[in-house]
Design brief:
The protein has 193 residues and is mainly alpha-helical. It has two domains: 107 residues, Rna Polymerase Sigma Factor, Chain: A (Orthogonal Bundle); 74 residues, Winged helix-like DNA-binding domain superfamily/Winged helix DNA-binding domain (Arc Repressor Mutant, subunit A, Orthogonal Bundle), CATH 1.10.10. The radius of gyration is 19 Å and the shape is elongated.
C-alpha cells in the first residue's frame, strides 16, 4: 500500500526521491503544494501577474531539471525559494526597462487573501485600493519581506535565507515596511501617528 492509498501525504523528501526517479505524480504534488507560495514571492518582485506566473513555471521546470542536486535533509522550501529568487533577480535584470513601463500593473487582488464576507464591500474595495497603492510605494526589499512574511507566512530566518541577507536586516526591513504602511494608511483609518 503506498502513501496515497493510506491517506497520508508523503513528506517532501519522499516526493523528491520520486521526482529524481522521474515520477511525474510526485512532481505534480510538489507543484500543487508550493506554486502559490512561489507566485507570491515572484509577485513581490514584479508586481505583475504574467511575470510572476512565468517565474512559477520556470521555477518548477528548474526543480525538475535539478532534482538530483537536492540533498535529503536539506531545507526543501529554502532550496526551492532560492531557485525562484535567483530566477526573479535574473529576470529583473534582463527586463529592467520593460518592468518600469509596467510598474502600474500592481493588483493586490492577485495576491491570496483571507476571503470573508464583509457587509461593506465598497469600503473594503477602497481600502484594498489604498493598501495596494501604499504597498507599491514601499522600497522593493521592504515590500518583498512584507509579502513573504504576511502572504507566505515565512519566518524571518527563512526570509533571510531566501533573500540572502542578515536576519537583523530582515527584521529591520519588516519593521520599516509596517511603519511606512501605518504612516500612510493611518490617516485613512482614523489613526494618528
Amino acid at each position: 500500500m503506498d502513501d496515497k492509498t493510506a491517506g497520508i501525504a508523503p513528506d517532501i523528501s519522499v516526493l523528491m526521491a520520486r521526482v529524481k526517479e522521474g515520477n511525474k505524480n510526485a512532481f505534480q504534488d510538489i507543484t500543487r503544494r508550493y506554486q502559490q507560495k512561489i507566485f507570491v514571492l515572484a509577485y513581490s518582485f514584479f508586481r505583475n501577474r504574467e511575470d510572476a506566473l512565468d517565474i512559477v513555471q520556470e521555477t518548477f521546470l528548474r526543480l525538475y531539471e535539478k532534482a538530483g542536486l537536492f540533498r535529503e535533509g536539506e531545507d526543501f522550501k529554502a532550496w526551492l525559494f532560492q531557485i525562484a529568487r535567483n530566477l526573479c533577480i535574473d529576470s529583473y535584470r534582463r527586463n529592467r526597462n520593460r518592468r518600469n513601463d509596467r510598474a502600474a500593473d500592481l493588483r493586490l487582488e492577485d495576491l491570496p487573501s483571507e476571503a470573508g464576507d464583509p457587509a461593506d464591500s465598497e469600503r473594503r474595495a477602497d481600502l484594498r485600493a489604498l493598501f495596494r497603492s501604499v504597498l507599491d510605494k514601499l522600497a522593493e526589499k521592504q515590500r518583498a519581506v512584507f509579502v513573504m512574511k504576511h502572504y507566505n507566512d515565512m519566518p524571518y530566518l527563512e526570509i533571510a535565507r531566501t533573500l540572502e541577507i542578515a536576519l537583523g536586516t530582515v527584521k529591520s526591513l519588516h519593521f520599516k515596511a509596517v511603519r511606512n504602511l501605518r504612516k500612510h494608511l493611518g490617516p485613512h483609518m482614523g489613526m494618528t501617528s
